[in-house]
Amino acid sequence: MTQLESFDKLVSLAKRRGFIFQSSEIYGGINACYDYGPLGVELKRNVKDIWWNAMTRDYDNIVGLDAAILMHPKVWEASGHIAGFTDPLVDCKKCKSRFREDTLPEENLTHRKCPKCEGALTEARNFNLMFKTEMGALEGAGTEVYLRPETAQGIFVNFLNVMDTSRQRIPFGIAQIGKAFRNEITPGNFTFRTREFEQMEMQYFVEPENSDEWFETWKQRRLEYYDRIGIKRENLRFEAHGPNELAHYAKAAFDIEFKFPIGWSELEGIHNRSDFDLKQHEAYSGKKMMAMDATTNKKFHPFIIETSAGCDRTVLAILSQAYEEQTLEDGSERTVMHFHPAVAPIKVAILPLMKKDGLKELAYEIYDDLKKILPAFFDEKGAIGRRYRRMDEAGTPFCVTIDHDTIEKGTVTIRDRDSMGQVTIPKEELKAWLLERIYV
Ligand code: ATP
User: pLDDT tens digits, residue range 155-207?
Assistant: First the structure.
């Protein structure tokens, strides 16, 4: 269960500890854009690495791609984004607030009154969510291009290149992690809805007759990923899109939702996109976007099963689930981030109990050895209790204290972040002990 009632406390911890900052903060910030600080970038990288490794190593026939953000403008005509990637925008004539018409409560729609001030609302105008820019040296004379609003199209247009060069046969998949941009009308809820974000997408090309089966397989496989990064099953659920909610390209669609402090909300979309995309690109480019059936040697348009996850939303889910404020038996308080060790930004902290008697030097030696294989942190400053609290807030699963016993008996003491229990082991066993518990 998430311990948070809103994102407020998380926003403050994220800033205080260097997980996430408002972009361009010294200039007053820019709306709906965020920067990942030293701890945040490690957390996010772990989320991406585990996803990438699961896709390209655990399953057969999935290869990677890193396509450009700027693409030929025709891509967005073929994909339907120029005509259809719009939100219905309404403004309040009185207080000037802006809303997405499709998110307004029924009574506001019937009476066309602003939910904030009851002023009159304008008619809806369609607003395209793609960011436009110009390519070329001369202002006004260049070609209009777009920042990609999804990474998927980079995969579709490279379907033939990838299939031919990596000698794939259907079924196979292409995985990609990259930035996407959407000029969202109503961004907000911290990093839940931003204008620049990162997606982790995998498109799996299958025989049309097997697409329902693959769709089910991918739903299950995606849950296994969330297990690995420590997201609890009780905080996840599938939501099916009803027939009226299906996107123009989709034959079937499920969202994986997470129980955020703002309520159940989408983390990832799993779609059976049929042969829509390949046929569209075939029509617009004139290139045959087909694969060969291995037994009959006949060409066909594969169907595509898409799994499209938001990296920033996954990080936000991890942060939300991890956050806990505890009152301890002695009445003191601590804030602890219960990250799964595999995603924790710092895996282990090395803390000399005192600086004198060579403890600091010995601790540094142990740290120096560990940091070559794991993200480790060395902290010699302040009372040991305070150093533990700092590591609890950073979500470091293990703290290792170096004391006189380390010199006399060659042992180290490991403190567990969640239980605060301690175990003592020979220092030679430390590396193996940690590795066994961190990388599952
Ligand atoms: P929503 O309904 O929340 O706008 P969507 O259905 O448009 O999302 P998709 O186009 O399916 O989203 O994109 C796949 C994933 O990318 C989403 O599940 C989400 O995790 C992430 N994503 C989409 N838009 C944003 C955004 N503005 N900010 C952060 N992540 C986003």
Answer: 999 999 999 999 999 999 999 999 999 999 888 899 999 999 999 999 999 99
Question: Residue 380: which domain range?
Answer: 346-438
305 and 351 inside one domain: no
- The stretches of 239-310 forming alpha helices (DSSP H) are 276-285
CA of 363 to the centre of ligand 1 (A): 45
> What is the atom index within ligand 1 of the atom nearest the CA of 310?
20
Q: Which residue has its alpha carbon closest to ligand 1 atom 25?
A: 193
Ligand 1 atom, smallest distance to 255 CA: 18
Tally of domains within the chain: 2
Claim to verify: residue 370 and residue 276 sit in the same structural domain: no
Among all chains, which residue has been given the structure tokens 């990064």?
229
Q: Considering 319, 335, 366, which residue would you say is the last residue of a domain?
A: 319
Q: Whose CA is nearest to atom 10 of ligand 1?
A: 150
Give the burial string for 96-131 (b: 16+ CB within 10 Å, else e).
eeebebeebeeebeeeebbeeeeeebeebeeebebe
Pair (294, 362) in one structural domain: no
pLDDT digits (tens, 9 = 90+) for 322-344: 999 999 999 999 999 999 999 99
- Residue 197 in contact with ligand 1 by CB distance below 6 A: yes
